[in-house]
Amino acid sequence: MEIIIQPNADAASALAARHLARVIRGKPDAVIGLATGSTPLRLYAELIRLHRNEGLDFSGVTTFNLDEYLGLAPDHVASYHRFMWEHLFDHINVDRQRVHIPTGLLTGEDVPAYCQRYEDDIRGAGGIDVQVLGIGSDGHIGFNEPGSSLASRTRIKTLTRRTREDNAQYFESAAEVPHHVITMGIGTIMEARTALLLAFGESKAAAVAGAVEGPVTASNPASVLQMHPVTKVFLDEDAGSQLGRRDYYHWVFDNKPTWQRD
Ligand code: PGA
C-alpha cells in the first residue's frame, strides 16, 4: 500500500484526481469504479474542473458504482443514482450508456440474478481499471460491513446500526435509512487493477489505522487491501493521525524518484 498523507482533504483529493486523469488520458476507454458519500465530493469537483479547464474527456469511460440502497428510487434525495448525477455525471461528458449504478428497485427474488448480471457487466467491460473507495468508520468498503466474506461478490447486505447512524444525515429521519443495500463484494473490489482509498477526518482515523497497520481481518474489511497489489491511500492529517508509521509514509512520499511520481 502506498500511504499518501496530505495537509488537507483538498490536497489529497487533487492528487487522487490527478491519478485518475492520468489513467483516463492513457486509456480513454478506461473502466472506473466510483464511490458515493461525503469523501469523494472534492475528488469529483476536481474531475469536473479538469474536464472543463483541461479537456479531460470522459466520453469513452465506463463507470461502475459500488452500491445503492435497496428500496430507493433513482430520484430519491438520498439515492446514490441521484448523488452521482448531481455531483459528477451531469457536469462531465460521460456517455449515459456506459454508466452503471446498482438499482435500488428490486424485489427479493430478483436480487441474485441482478447481482450476477452486475458482475457479468463488469467482466464484460474488461474489468475495473481503477476503483475509488471511501471507508466507513467501521472499516467497511462499498457497503461490505465488518464480518463480510473477504471473497464476497455483488450481493445484498444488511447495514450495521453504526452505518445507518453515520448516513442518517442524508435522510429526513434516522428511521428512513434503509436496512438493506446492494453492494459490490470484497472479492469484486479486489479484482480492480488499482484501488484508490480516500479517507478524511478524525472519525476515520481508527478505521484507517486498522486497515493499513492492523491484521487482515473481515472485522475491518478495508484491511483486505493489504493483499491488493496496487492500492493508494489518500489521507488528510486527521485521518492519518493514528498511523504508527506516519513519519515513514511522509518520507517515502517526499523522496519518491521523479519517474515514480504521479
Ligand atoms: P463517507 O462514507 O464518505 O460519507 O464518510 C464513506 C463510506 O461509508 O464508505
Low-confidence stretches: none
Spatial sequence of strands, sheet with the most strands: 1-10-9-6-2-3-5
- Shape by Cα distribution: globular
**Bound small-molecule species:** 2-phosphoglycolic acid
CATH topology: Rossmann fold
Helix content: 25-40%
Tell me the span between the first and last alpha carbons: 15 Å
User: How big is the Rg?
Assistant: 17 Å
User: pLDDT average, as an integer?
Assistant: 96
Largest sheet: 7 strands, parallel
Strand content: 15-25%
Give the class from helix and strand content and strand pairing.
Answer: alpha/beta
Q: Report the order of strands and helices.
A: EHEHEEHEHEEHEHEHEH
**Individual helix count:** 8
Quaternary form: single chain
Q: Number of folding domains?
A: 1
What does this protein look like?
This protein has 8 helices and 10 strands. The two termini are 15 Å apart. The strands form 2 sheets. Strands 1-10-9-6-2-3-5 form a 7-stranded parallel beta sheet, sandwiched between helices. It is 32% helix and 16% strand. It has helices spanning 9-26, 41-54, 80-87, 111-124, 161-166, 186-190, 205-213, 246-254, and strands at residues 2-6, 31-34, 62-65, 67-69, 99-100, 130-133, 155-158, 180-183, 194-199, 231-236. The chain binds 2-phosphoglycolic acid.
Question: What's the topology here?
Answer:
Layout: E1 2-6, H1 9-26, E2 31-34, H2 41-54, E3 62-65, E4 67-69, H3 80-87, E5 99-100, H4 111-124, E6 130-133, E7 155-158, H5 161-166, E8 180-183, H6 186-190, E9 194-199, H7 205-213, E10 231-236, H8 246-254
Condensed summary:
With 262 residues, this protein is an alpha/beta fold. It has helices at 9-26, 41-54, 80-87, 111-124, 161-166, 186-190, 205-213, 246-254, and strands at residues 2-6, 31-34, 62-65, 67-69, 99-100, 130-133, 155-158, 180-183, 194-199, 231-236. It is built from eight helices and ten strands.
